[in-house]
Amino acid sequence: MAARAAVTPRSPGGGHAPGRRSPFAVSVAALRRDADHRASVVCSAAIGGLAITGSAVPDGSDVSVEVVVELVHGGVLVSGAVTAPWEGACRRCLGPARGVVRSKVRELFEENGDPEVVYPLGRDTLDLEPLVRDAVLLDLPLAPLCRPACAGLCPVCGANRNDTACTCEPVEQSRGPWSALDMLRDDQSR
């Protein structure tokens, strides 16, 4: 049966100060001593700066990690899931949009690997924070929606069509980026 490590630290500002142990650090020495060479790790802490153009993890919100850390030939294999709340502006109505990122992870940490290709493995500890950061940033929505059926804003009056029925005449849709040139061709044929 695999060992189970449960860590639930709180990092008030997100991240950790230089010289301070990361809230997502796992002891590699304990992993090597375990006969099974694997451990379940469950932890959560705030990580600052998790934002992309359309959405972000709110400051102070916990990012949760539930993984299995396994000693393999050449390094340590980490498999499991990362979960974090996110918020942003809806791309259609500009109202608040919220959700939860659920990322599956399966990555190899190596001692002497290229840091551009693999995650670094320390001699005594394994820091999951770079993996957690990457997993969340890659799965945050670029153009979030408040709900899948969001009706958006009226292009004429700007009313939120989720809240009120708009009585504006429908705007004629263009037939593509070159439709303005079609008008010139029609003018020349007369």
Give the overall silhouette: elongated
Class per helix and strand makeup: alpha+beta
Give the biggest beta sheet: 7 strands, mixed
Note poorly predicted spans: 1-17
Q: Could you characterize the architecture of this molecule?
A:
This protein is α+β, with helices and mostly antiparallel strands. The chain has one domain. The chain has three helices and nine strands, in the order E-E-H-E-E-E-E-E-E-E-H-H. The protein has helices at 28-33, 129-139, 179-188; strands at 3-7, 25-27, 38-46, 55-56, 62-72, 75-89, 96-110, 119-120, 125-127. Strands 1, 3, 4, 5, 6, 7 and 8 form a seven-stranded mixed β-sheet that branches. Strands 2-9 form a two-stranded antiparallel ribbon. The longest helix is centred in the last third of the chain and has 11 residues, at 129-139. The model is unreliable at 1-17 (pLDDT under 50).
Give the helix/strand layout.
Layout lengths: L2 E5 L17 E3 H6 L4 E9 L8 E2 L5 E11 L2 E15 L6 E15 L8 E2 L4 E3 L1 H11 L39 H10 L2
Parallel strand pairs: 1-3, 7-8
Antiparallel strand pairs: 2-9, 3-5, 4-6, 5-6, 6-7
